[in-house]
Amino acid sequence: MIRIAIRWLIAFVLIAATYNPTQYNLVRWSLTNLSEQLPLIVLSGLILLIVYIIFMRATLRSIGLFGMALVLALVAALLWVPYEFGGLSLENQAANLWLGIVALSLVLGIGLSWSHIRRAISGQADMDDVDE
């Protein structure tokens, strides 16, 4: 369970480092410092891109596009219920953006952890797990 939480946390940091409602993200830093720190911006962007490719490839291989859409739909439904009953307000744009970051990071985190979750639920090993 801790490994799953760590994978989700890494996905959350990855998405939040790219863009979030604060001033501490790659997009805002790039826009304000493009001429002064271009090499560092390019390096940071390439590192984030590599991590995104690793996460997306692993997620697509484990749950696919349908699974990603299903997890996102589940998260949306989990947000819809408290909104419908007055427990969640969508007036605050910053809070909405953080909810979106959490939702996307859950998709990536579940995608990265799906083989481990499936093995724990079913007791069956994947072909990739044979060496363990």
Which helices and strands occur, and which strands form pairs?
Layout: H1 2-18, H2 26-33, H3 38-62, H4 64-84, H5 93-122
Helix pairs in contact: 1-3, 1-5, 2-3, 3-4, 3-5, 4-5
3D architecture notes:
The protein has about 130 residues and is an all-alpha fold. The chain has 5 helices and no strands. The chain has helices spanning about 1-20, 25-35, 40-60, 65-85, 95-120. Helix 2 runs antiparallel to helix 3 (about 40-60), helix 3 crosses helix 4 (about 65-85) and helix 3 packs across helix 5 (about 95-120). The longest helix is centred in the C-terminal third of the chain and has 30 residues, at about 95-120. The chain starts with a helix and ends in a 10-residue tail after the last helix. The model has no long low-confidence stretch (mean pLDDT about 90).
Give me some keywords for this one.
single chain, 132 residues, mainly alpha, 5 helices, 77% helix, flat
Largest sheet: none
Q: Roughly what is the average pLDDT, rounded to an integer?
A: 91
Helix content estimate: over 70%
Overall strand count: 0
* Gyration radius, in Å: 17 Å
First-last Cα distance: 18 Å
* Discrete helix count: 5
Which stretches are low in confidence, meaning pLDDT under 50 for 5 or more residues running? none
By helix and strand content, what is the structural category? mainly alpha
* Beta-strand percentage range: under 5%
